[in-house]
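re: ur question from earlier - yeah i can do the single chain one, its not a big deal. heres the input i used so u can compare w yours
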Amino acid sequence: MSSPLAVQFIDVPHRPIHSDEEINKDLAPALSILFKAHGLIAAWQGKRHEDRYTQIWILLWQDLASSHAFFTSPAYREFHNDIQPALNGRSIHWQQHALVGTSDLDSLDRLKAMVKAPAIEVALTKVIEGRVSGYYDVFRSTIGPILDGEDGCDGWWVGPQMENPQHQILLENWRSVDAHHDEFEKRPTFQECIVALSDYYGEYVIPTHIVHVKPIFGSF
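and the output i got, formated as tokens:
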């Protein structure tokens, strides 16, 4: 039996710049090393809506081992060195993975819809220990149907963070950040979601959004 695919989210906080072209030129040498990594299937680049000086990279690997192999390899040392001018003293955060296709909630088809989204809400949900299965049940019975019925939402994806499976990575495909914040959050259905999940939150969830997502490597 083959290992499941793995999706990885990398936060890349970079130096202040005047244009995307300027920072992408700085990042190009490091990305060229990453794109040679064995097992990398596809990659996307976007921006954090809440911080214009942070890029988010979404990587799809043939398995979790392939990601770990790159980030513990001599090639990663080169990558790390080459990316420093763009970071200007900041650090990337790459320890966030999830498996793909282990259930109906984290299917590959759902992920395909995510990377085409105008705005991806990302909510790292720290679930109370021992309640993850209940969280999934509520997602199937309540949260999923609500999101599926929302005009501004075109899909969702949820799976356990591999670094800590009690933490759930929730992605939602919104037609715009405003469709999420200014429209959905003012509706009674949003409060229904909050109430339905209130028994599972270990702490309050502060979501962020990825915008301007575009493919930069491979395909799937």
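The helical segments are 20-34, 64-71, 74-87, 108-114, 132-148, 177-183, 188-197. not sure if urs matches, ping me
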